[in-house]
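Reading a protein record of the kind used here takes only a little practice. The record below shows the convention in full.

——
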Amino acid sequence: MMKKLNEIKAEVTLLAKLIGASTNDLPTYGRTRDFGYPHIEVNELGYHYVVVERGQELERKTTNDYDELLYWIFEDATHNLAFAYELKSRIEDQDCRRIAFPKQIELMTRISSKMAARLREEIAEVLRRAPYDDEPTKAVNRMRRDKGI
């Protein structure tokens, strides 16, 4: 039996408290608030995670697996929170992902060890394709210093 939007919202709101997520970090339900924020739809085809910006649908993921929907919601929410944390905790001349990725995994672990394990694997794959690299950050910072920025 598919969960209704109000049931999904209630569960997501409870889980969001575990990671300190606000409503701005979470999707809306049934309709979009636009500007690239996701929203959730439910119909006979399943659960839909939809991103709309300026009236254009940019992304739609559909599943019948409720846990998959929760993963999509919290992968985005923890990503946003982790990179906001990195911005406040930034270490100059260091690839920002060195702080953000572990923080994202830590946040996801508060929700579900299973989801955290999946996220850890996905991040490992990202790092296989694009390893940590501090050099571009160092170069940008040197340029800023040279220009007095």
User: Anything to note?
Assistant: The CA atoms of residues 9 and 93 lie 40 Å apart. Residues 66-88 form the longest helix (23 residues).
